[in-house]
Amino acid sequence: MPLKIVFAGTPDFAARHLESLINSEHQVIAVYSQPDRPAGRGKKLQASPVKQLAQSHDIRVYQPENFKSDEAQNQLAQLNADLMVVVAYGLLLPQVILNTPKLGCINVHGSLLPRWRGAAPIQRAIWAGDKETGVTIMQMDVGLDTGDMLLSQAVPIDDSDTSASLYEKLADIGPQALLKSLEQIESQQACPIKQDDDSANYAKKLNKTEALIDWSLAAKQLERNVRAFTPWPMAYFKLNDTAIKVHQANLVNLDNNHPPGTILQVDKTGVIVQTGNQALKLTQLQLPGKKALPVADILNARQDWFLQGAQL
């Protein structure tokens, strides 16, 4: 029998999952999303992608600041849902909310749990050099991504993957895994598996301070940082007090004794910089107020900034 579902989510990643539910046999009876936020140059209030999608299908939308009030809790109870599906919602759900739908709440998480729990599992998988990641459909509890696992689906992490491309991969497989998991729940065939807490890592949120390149780190780590921090916060370095973003970089096997941060070579294919271990070739950069460009184009305008032997 099709399930009566309440969906909770906010960004485009969540909207992709909501769309799959709307197009399925199940009935989405209401949607929860974060309150509208100022966005764009005019800082006008903007509805989340999930809210916009729900409204385009005439689905009721609720946007409580949290679920602490009796009003918010009663509102959910009155919906009489079978299940709540949570995808990148942005709010922690208290136990009273987890207990309200008849079959509880499930979450689509962007890692192969318990590998990465927390706010930035996609980025941390690249940052750590993982060879694969995936999505996990999880029965929610009050812990941070600690609930029993219902279903997992893996994808490889390619050497060229950024957080943006990996996000797209997971947004493609997540809805399929969600629908398969709902099928198992509906037919009472779901087999929850407890997580091994000893294998869990905390995927802490990214910040701009972390994105400043520390040339004393190994080139291998810095190359992963560049990909993990794309599209946000973007890895960058400072030259003449100017912050320059790095969009693409490659590991270079060079063995020398120059201090980290020394520019070793400069040509139209890139700027090679010594790191704490081996070197990093910067191939696509972005100057302030400009678009990202290949190094050859940057050198046409700013060759005097990138001189062999200079220190970054």
UniProtKB/TrEMBL annotation:
GO molecular-function term, one example from the UniProt record: methionyl-tRNA formyltransferase activity
Residue ranges annotated for the Formyl transferase N-terminal domain, each copy included: 4-180
Pfam family name, one: Formyl_trans_N
Domain Formyl transferase C-terminal, first and last residues per copy: 205-301
Binding site for (6S)-5,6,7,8-tetrahydrofolate: 111-114
Signal peptide location: none
Catalytic function, reaction form: L-methionyl-tRNA(fMet) + (6R)-10-formyltetrahydrofolate = N-formyl-L-methionyl-tRNA(fMet) + (6S)-5,6,7,8-tetrahydrofolate + H(+)
Keyword terms, alphabetized: Protein biosynthesis, Transferase
InterPro entries, A to Z: Fmt, Formyl_trans_C, Formyl_trans_C_sf, Formyl_transf_N, Formyl_transf_N_sf, Formyl_transferase-like_C_sf, GART_AS, Met-tRNA-FMT_C
Known EC number: 2.1.2.9
SUPFAM superfamilies assigned: FMT C-terminal domain-like (SSF50486), Formyltransferase (SSF53328)
EC top class, as a word: transferase
Gene3D superfamilies reported in the protein's UniProt record: Formyl transferase, C-terminal domain, Formyl transferase, N-terminal domain
Keyword Protein biosynthesis applies: yes
NCBIfam families attached to this UniProt entry: fmt
Role description: Attaches a formyl group to the free amino group of methionyl-tRNA(fMet). The formyl group appears to play a dual role in the initiator identity of N-formylmethionyl-tRNA by promoting its recognition by IF2 and preventing the misappropriation of this tRNA by the elongation apparatus.
Assigned protein family: Belongs to the Fmt family.
Protein name: Methionyl-tRNA formyltransferase
Organism: Catenovulum adriaticum
